[in-house]
Amino acid sequence: LTTKITLLAKYIGYMGVVAASLAFIVSCIKGLWIKGDDPKDLIQYFITAITVLAVAVPEGLPLAVTLALAFSSHKMMSV
Predict the structure, then answer these.
(1) What is the pTM of this model?
(2) Given Cys at both, which of 12, 21, 26, 30 links 60, Cβ 3.0 to 4.6 Å?
């Protein structure tokens, strides 16, 4: 069970990094090339990406633990 939770937590962490990177890239494309914003706005785009990462990972971990416990208890009930 602990290995499954650890693996699931790693996947959630990777997805958080992917989401943060995607948010940063999309913000750069939209802000710098489409709108023509000042390059100083890169700091704001980076802060937004870090915020996405900081919010995504802690929100996913309780869900991962809950799902792992639910699947394990279901498996124990069927034995």
Answers:
(1) 0.66
(2) 12
